[in-house]
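=== Structure Prediction Worksheet ===
Name of assembly: unnamed complex
Input type: mixed (protein and possibly other molecules)
Chain count: two
Listed entries:
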Amino acid sequence: MIRMVAIVIIQVLVLYSMYLAGTWIQNALDLMIPGSIIGMVLLFCLLVTKILPLRWIQEGSRYLLAHLTLFFIPVTVGVMEFSHVFKGKGLLLIPAVLVSTILVMLISGKLLDFFMSKRLRKRSNET
Amino acid sequence: MKHSLIEISFPALTIGLYLLSLQLYRKWRHPLLTPILTAVTVIICFLVILDFSYETYMTGAVWIDKLLGPAVVALAYPLYIHRSLLMQYTFPLLLCIVTGVCVGVFSGLFFAQMIGTSQNVILSLLPKSVTTPVAMEITRVSGGMPSIVVVFAMIAGIGGVITAPYLFKWFKIKSDMSRGLGLGAASHAIGTSKALEYGSQAAATSSVAMTISALVASIIIPIIASWV
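=== Predicted Assembly ===
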């Protein structure tokens, strides 16, 4: 149990240093891509090239991803300072976001469905 | 003394309410009981009733907030695990994800400008379909308000999960991968947790869609934001 906790803490620190490295790269190169995303790409590259073994970050990653929700609670509470945005005309933003979300799900899902059925048909023609 | 008490009690309250709302969701599985919605609502009510400012809350809760960055970095893990699935369908997946991001950003921009809201609200609306921590980072970079994008991301997440089963039925979206992709591209992490109900392949595609669309959006949105 204590061993497990220690592993998770150390691995989270590894991930945290990746995040810091990503932020550093963002600042140094003056990029518009967030440091955390750069850190993610960096980690992915290190894993693919086997420079960093998967087991070094596996437990820490699982732990952080399992509780992803928790980590964005503090920022979400910040909503309380912006209630004025949804007053009056701003209330229309809610259905606007909903319709836009539905469009994304429909178009991207339907498009992949189209590709998949085409590929399946091609495969069944070959055999 | 008062200060250190706040530093301990607010993170404790946040974690406690998170665990409680997670239990609640596991019991009833209703989309409206999405843990973040319950926990945040209760915390805000608590702060408003006891007359604490958000700033005071953050002096303690900042310790939880600090883990947001490494949590985003950890998304490389599912991406690495599912890389063979991704490789197999690289072209169709990428095309669909990029299309999804563009549809989301441009339709959002169109609606927001039609409504005629302020500049920084429009900027905060663009990354709504991106997983929340990344959406916040994008907003920070593009000049919007990170706290507002969270509200939009929650509407996109919860709204998508509620409407998805109907959309799949009415528009005959049949394969598990397509369902997963749609959920991940439109409703990020909340959508990915819903995709689990359609099986592991749907969940894998969904997390891939969520991760790649976050990546694509973090490149596209700052560029579009500089035109607005």
